[in-house]
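Sample A.
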Amino acid sequence: MLLLLSLSGTLVVVINSTQLTFYILEYHTFIHFQFFRSIGDIFLQGILFEGAVMMFWRKNSHKENECVHQLQADEKVNELRAAMGRLTKASEHFCTDACLKRYLEARNWDVDKAMKMLEETIQWRSTFKPDSIRWNDIAIEGETGKAYRANFFDRQGRTVLILRPGMQNTTGCENQMRHLVYLLENAIYNLPKDQEQMAWLIDFTGWSMSNAVPVKTSRETINILQNHYPERLAVAFLYNPPRIFEASWKIVKYFLDAKTFAKVKFVYPKNKDSVELMKTYFDDENLPAEFGGRAKLHYDHEEFSRLMNEDEAKAEREWKSENSNGHINNGKPEVCHESAIALPAS
């Protein structure tokens, strides 16, 4: 006699006169349990079976939750796109599904708030014109290496920006913001196609109140980062800030939203836990010695300028190729569509 019972198409129980057999089938995984008439065998195999079934259901439950979340995210993206209405060609190029998702995440999936945020960014881009910024326009800001894209990635493959506020060499807020935006756009452009975020390493060597930027500049930096580049920052490590920085931080932190605030990590060489946390993000071989790693930190302004000019030329070729083919590439540029250097200057 043979009885076949099926549960959800994945758990199969076969019963005959001599043994009880359980099969769990999932994709290419095959687990087989046999329960013989021996009481000891039944008890032992029963425990094993129960554990395997629990593992199977937990795994499936996690996958189902991920699937449900993705479906809900897709629905929200479609809802936001519909709410945005008809877009200009430039805005349509900017508003990829990945972009809309980042704005939704930044506003806890509230479509109305995400739409308001996105509309403000579109307006900001139309006036700030990040697509018109070229390295040669703001190269003076980078002469001391106060901020630049590192030549390595973090453990997740994310672009890394190194900031050294102690190397500040200018006082004009407007050009400083143009320099910041250019580096953000370039960092995004150089992201691998499976990544959307960047990491910041901030070295406070040489920083003092005499070369600190005004609160207004700090506030504008935060405004641009969290309101016009939402969900682009993965983590920011502030390495060995002096005690006097705490006074500035007490003011600056009030401009941060909760999500951005949670991404800011203070690291002190004598605090083992903070150092270990930072090193979970970076390989020792890549991490500069200034941050407790083994690599030698060296900024060559001429070499960095050459790399920026190469990126601009490459991005313009890609843009022309996309437009000559009459479509927008939905592959890597999906991650890079925010990158202003991917568009030619108007």
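Sample B, a different protein:
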Amino acid sequence: MARRTAYTSSLALAATLALSVLVARGARGLELRQVTRPYLHSEGPSWDRAHNGLLFVDIAGDSLHFYDAATGGVRGLAFEGPVTPAIQLPGGTLAVGVGRTLQEVDWAASGFGAVLASRPAVLATVDQDKPGNRFNDGAADSLGRMWIGTMGPEPVVGQVTPNQGSLFRITRRRSDADPLWSRLVDPRGHRDTDGGAALVTTALANVSISNGLVFNRRETLMYYIDTPTRRVDVFDYNLAAGTIANRRPAFDLAANNVEGNPDGMAIDADDNLWVACFGGSQVIHVDPRTGRLLRRVAIPASQVTAVALGGPRDAQGGDTLYVTSMRKGLSEDQLLLEPNAGAVFAVTGLGVRAQRRP
């Protein structure tokens, strides 16, 4: 059962709140609930509108999870390797990254059970020349075209080998007679060489930690994070062609005196961004058109990893901000200050709703 707790938005109280399990309500009426137990590295949340729940992964725990908003229960599915991302695809299946391999998984067909009803299909394996790499964050556009990035080895939490990752465009193969497939095929006829069931194109190279990828409502812009830059960048996006161009900064954390490094990201119905700040105990709300910091939301965990908007009222656009966090890498003393690190939290009372594309 989820623990309901009142919430304050003051960053200065973050450590105190962690010890007192968030007992004070903030002046702006925000409320934070811890909705799962702590995991090693909860990440990659996305709201599953069809099943009224939240999908998320535990990267270090090699597992995919589903939080049922109606019951408060969490179900899990184990894999053989670090799991991220888990992207919802048209038709109800999931694209799940396991290490450097992307699999198509129909978890809903098994009722989100511990055993799949059918064997996953291998879509692609990337970075063949960099066996220490793994997938990190990603998203799909409205046509089901996936944009997923990788990162280099991380022998110590926060110490990633730089410039080893890439950003890939990955498209499931379909019959040439399929109208949707004909809109998605690479005009150059590119075919991947690993025998997977997808087309793979490298969109960006020399990436350190590919992160936080979202589209605006009209899908004319794609926002993207390479974490060590401490920026959110934006590209012009051509949905028909599946191409990005004209990269430029949208928000600079250092210039705005924001603590922490940008990690996962979500976008709301107003096309404003919500950015998880790893090492900053907060999520920031940003207007990417003006570069303005709108507000900060404190989280009782220093290693905030990602965010998603959703919730039971998602028919009108969910109004709950789900926040994942990480406990891996924290010392015993740090865990005493933030015992719930690694849990998934839900913040309400923000006055925003999830984006619904046309």
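Observation for Sample B: The chain has one domain: 23-348.
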